[in-house]
Amino acid sequence: MRATGRGPSVHRRAGGRLAALGLALGLLTAACAGGGTGAGASSGTSPGAASARAAAAEERLAENSIVPLEGAPPTPVLPVTVDSSDGRRVTVEDASRILPLNGGVAEIVFTLGLGDRVVGRDITATFEEARKLPQVTRAHDVSAESVLSLRPTVVLADTDTGPKEAVQQIRDAGVPVVVLDPATKLSDVTARTTRIAAALGVPEAGKALNKRMNDELAAAHAGVPEGSRPKVAFLYLRGSAAVYLIGGKGSGADSLLAAAGAVDAGTEAGLDRPFTPITTEALAQAQPDVILMMTKGLESVGGLDGLLQIPGIAQTPAGLNRRVVDMEDGVLLGFGPRTPLVIDILVDRVHQDG
């Protein structure tokens, strides 16, 4: 299967999945609609069910769409005063015009059922429901003028949002700005959801979304084959910029791989930084069974054949067996409501055939 940039693919075991798609859609639809159940979790314990869940997850990610919580959209109960990650206390009195300055934050807002209140987006909000909204960033920099022209009643940012002068200009105009810590690991997803729901006056919706995600993650993890612990190396590559890095502790991929029942090869090899330049020695130490990458990164080095030309990769078990899994850039480390779909796919793709 060739990487297309639209969704995840694995360069091995390409056949046999379409037959499972009917079962897959039923499994995943039930989990999303009902928030997941004990029955849903147990259904993921067989290899066939794991493959079915992965196939359905691929379909969902290919649609690039958000599945809101069931039922009527929540009604914000305001005002609320919340902690902002820049050390401030922020009071939100009106959530009728919400402007998230981060794609992951926007995804949570839409999934909470408040998408019809969102008035703009930043460049990283690329899912279908947000695509037609006005963009308020140039490259990754926020334009204060563009933000203020949309008359937001609350802005949601994170500590990486900048430039800081633009954020301060928005705040000086009287708009409440709630700053959040970035999500860099799986456990951050529920904490971030709780904070966003609290800031928008819909805490019960936040609890419901967290329950749904936790149930979906449990169902995905139930598909891990007993006794299977493959070593997976996350490689961050940008061939055009000569960036060749291997993930280690704190890369973000390490927490995803743990949830999928795999071992992060970089961390196992003693790499205690999020990213380290790739060397032949580092790869020889890591000895990954599978390589995990972002799709654009794989494309930037010429696909699988180009990847195998990087010194040391062809000599790893992953290189020898051509076992490379790639996933769309914005989804793989997005850490949001669609992250359980990522785990569904990883559970199926990184483990050996039974």
From TrEMBL:
Keywords of the record: Signal
Domain Fe/B12 periplasmic-binding: start-end pairs: 97-354
UniProt-listed SUPFAM superfamilies: Helical backbone' metal receptor
Any Pfam family the entry gives: Peripla_BP_2
Signal sequence extent: 1-33
Family: Belongs to the bacterial solute-binding protein 8 family.
Record protein name field: ABC transporter substrate-binding protein
The organism of origin for this protein: Streptomyces phaeoluteigriseus
